[in-house]
Specification:
Number of strands of chain A: 6
Shape of chain B: elongated
Largest interface: A-B, 26 and 22 residues
Oligomer: heterodimer
Distance between the termini of chain B: 85 Å
CATH topology of the largest domain in chain B: Alpha-Beta Plaits
Structural class of chain A: alpha+beta
Largest sheet of chain A: 4 strands, mixed
Helix content of chain A: 25-40%
Helix content of chain B: 40-55%
Order of helices and strands of chain B: HHHEEHEEHEH
CATH class of the largest domain in chain B: Alpha Beta
Strand content of chain A: 35-45%
Number of domains of chain A: 1
Number of domains of chain B: 2
Radius of gyration of chain A: 15 Å
Distance between the termini of chain A: 39 Å
Radius of gyration of chain B: 30 Å
Structural class of chain B: alpha+beta
CATH architecture of chain A: 2-Layer Sandwich
């Protein structure tokens, strides 16, 4: 399954995992104190070959159609990390629920680095 | 757990020593290939010895596997600080905490270089800092200040109540003379000149 699927009278609506990752990415970077979304090996390799669209945010959808997110973050120096992490989780939850009507199981934030 | 680690290290040391001794004995010609063949043939044809060899193999694999898992598990466990919120888990990479401490070098002018190493244990967070200081620094006062700044900054930014143990190791004291010498050794950048820039100018 590549994304979340729902059915209407006219047909199916599918939301790709990349869309969920993009929404989460925008919602996270809107929070003051977040420098950028962190990276992983896969996104780093894709970035090297010029494909910058791949987000390092991991999206998993379980059998009950509940979503689990893993969000790597780089935080600005001087920010309170638990506070920022909480705000990011809330912002992502709000944005995803508003834009996709999906139910979020949990949003795991992983602070990878601190930059100025 | 510590006893298990020591036993594991001893076990590996003994095995490696035995292998080394066998190789030395073999190279000194004390051990003939025929002896090894005889031993292997004996082990192969006796049912009891085959069972013992097989069980020893399983035991060795199990010990190696559990020892590696213990080491790797501990390594992975120690590389993050984690806490849970209502929406999920928040993990902070210890390298991020190290980045944070590196930035403190800019706050204290007497510090020339700073290399932190952060470990999270059950006791709390252990910060090991190796510093190079400028010669005018008062070491007890400066290290005390650095410990205090490190502790308060980590608590402020990570928002944790855990104990923070800061160990400081002064590795080098750099004199003004060395700093000046380094500066002098660096070649001065030549200003780019415009070809025929002075042409037509009145002196």
């Amino acid at each position: 399954m590549r994304g979340e699927e729902s059915q209407t009278d006219l047909g199916n609506i599918r939301i790709h995992k990349n869309v969920i990752a993009s929404v989460a990415s925008i919602a996270a970077t809107e929070i003051q104190g977040v420098k950028r979304i962190g990276g992983d090996l896969r996104s780093g390799i894709f970035e090297l070959i010029g494909k910058k669209t791949l987000s390092a945010i991991k999206v998993d959808i379980d059998k009950n159609d509940e979503i689990r997110l893993e969000v790597p973050l780089v935080i600005k120096y001087g920010s309170n990390i638990p506070d920022i992490a909480n705000k990011v989780q809330e912002s992502i939850r709000e944005a995803l629920e508003k834009m996709t009507n999906l139910s979020i199981k949990y949003i795991n934030v992983n602070v990878q680095s601190i930059e100025k | 757990m510590r006893v298990f680690t020591v036993l594991g290290i001893l076990f590996y040391a003994i095995v490696l020593i035995l292998i080394g001794m066998v190789l030395i004995v073999f190279s000194l010609n004390f051990l003939q290939p025929q002896d090894i063949t005889n031993l292997l043939v004996y082990l192969q044809f006796n049912t009891n010895s085959r069972i013992i060899v097989g069980l020893s193999g399983i035991l060795l694999i199990t010990i190696s596997f559990s020892f590696a898992q213990l080491l790797l598990g501990r390594f992975q466990k120690e590389r993050n600080i984690a806490f849970t919120t209502a929406s999920g888990e928040v993990t902070i990479a210890l390298s991020a905490v190290e980045d944070l401490i590196k930035r403190l070098a800019g706050v204290i002018p007497e510090i020339k270089e700073l290399r932190p190493d952060v470990i999270a244990t059950k006791k709390g967070i252990i910060v090991d800092i190796r510093v190079a200081l400028k010669s005018e620094a008062n070491i007890p006062e400066l290290t005390g200040r650095l410990q205090e700044i490190t502790r308060s900054k980590i608590q402020e930014i990570l928002g944790i109540e855990e104990q923070i143990i800061t160990k400081i190791h002064v590795v080098k004291i750099i004199s003004h003379h060395d700093i000046d010498k380094k500066k002098r050794e660096q070649p001065e950048k030549e200003e780019p000149t415009i070809p025929f820039g002075g042409y037509g100018r009145l002196i």
